[in-house]
Structure of Bulb-type lectin domain-containing protein:
Amino acid sequence: MRMSSFSIFVFLLFSAAFSIQEVTAQQRNSTISLNSTLSPNTSWLSSSGRFAFGFYQEGDGFSVGIWLTTNPEKTVIWAANRDNPKVSSNVGLIFTSGGLILTPAQGENITISLHNKLASSASMQDSGNFVIYDSDSKIIWQSFESPTNTLLPGQRFLPGMEMYSSASEADHSNGRFLLIMQLDGYLVQYPALAPYTITFGYWDSGPGSAGANATLILDNDGKLYLHNSTSIAKTLSESKGNGMTYRLTVDVDGFFRLYSHPFTRNEN
């Protein structure tokens, strides 16, 4: 597949420097034990405080997700069950051996993490990955395996994976555009409801395929590339330097962009 008339819509945007300062209640602990709970306006922080997992407000309700703790706005990088209705403030979340369970005041409980083995512990990692472990400390579920609209360093965008833009800046449900790592080795963007054919794709990573089963990778230094089974097949963005937190996001307007966030750790 090749659409030569399109250029690569990848941009590096620098956010204002920020410190990690959350006014809501947070628990900073590298290990989350069974029966730990959250309620709206609470979260589990990664060890540095760079990422948080918990409830964030959307309109008149709340959703569960992971965000960069930017100040003053939260930058949501993963959303659980993103097309489900928002929940009221009278809701809780509990980590059980069966996984992460949302417990609304009315209606049935909602499972956020699906896994075959019993959970023993969990962790909000400094990579932005929320991980659940079994009793042998083996990973049985991780948010990195189900990206929503954002790719982080260390997270692999594997063949067949898709990322959807958000519906709007204030609504993180699935939007109108998607990015897919196709099995033929092309990274392609389509309107969300369109067939996956050259007629409807509005950007691809050509010329030339990166090879069957190619993977999109974002490194810690901001380098973005397609990697096949042996080597880097195509570089989409060169290294930008260390000391930043990078993210690749499919934005509301249908473009995917590479963002850079300076980070100042707050030890308080």
